[in-house]
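INFO batch 0412 | record 1 of 1 | parsing
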Amino acid sequence: MVWDVAVSKQDLFVDGDQALVSKVQCDGDLRANIEQAVAAIGGFERLVRPGDAILVKPNFNTADPPPASSDPAFVKQVVELLYEHGAGSVILGESSMFRLSTRDVLDTTGMLQAAKEAGARVVLFDEGEWMPVETGGRYLRKVSLARAGLEAEKIVYLPCLKTHRLADFTLSLKLAVGFVRPRDRVRMHMQRLRQKVADLNLAIRPDLIIMDGRKCFIKGGPDKGELREPNVILASGDRIAMDVECLRIIQGYPGHSLKGKPWDYPTIRLAAELGLGAAAEAEYRVVAGGDAKNRPDQGDAHP
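INFO prediction complete | emitting tokens
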């Protein structure tokens, strides 16, 4: 059986024909800042219907501290906010790098305990079933993905802000690699990784992305790198717009490793060609959290 990925999702967080990306400066109230970032693009109400089952996908490739891996406190706050806005169940799904046990990584970082406290059910992809998928892409035509991710009703990405030694950067587009079966993931990294990441995103799509940009790597990564602290949280429903804005944050620091223009990076360029999100500056808009006049209409945006 090959999984059918023909069903597409619409971006819930738009204003007219523009995708939205919010950027909120953190003031120490993590829960409030996350909610402000999402409110600025339309609010959790645009995503959550009463009783929804929502899969949250963080970044625990290793057990290294943030931004190498997600901050369990950040993930916990998002889970609690999803419940507060009506979710019936929240599943935390993850798979760490192929040489590591995801269960051990989540235990070491404190994520297992934080998930339990927040009421999230933990699904370890490497202990579950993998399904073959034909992506329709150019460089990654067939890959096996976690069944739990493919069956998820709605998905929230919680990526970290960082560079990557092999892929240039690892933000929202590359977070999809965590759904890939380990041996397929190894093959992806052998050649044309940047392009394969774009193709992979044809097969699985988040409904909402909340980027923890309080800390970032400006070179190195994904496990260790040169650290800076932008102290921001971003939210969007558009993976390309999100990643372009995050690249600009990293490139704002002297000594960064990202020398090209954001739109010229192979992953961004191919993702735009594949229609995965914004393809030009005019197709998205950055809004500041807390600025009511910049917020989109708060009406129901469910398809």
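INFO post-check: Residues 14-292 form a domain with the Rossmann fold fold (CATH 3.40.50.11440).
INFO record closed
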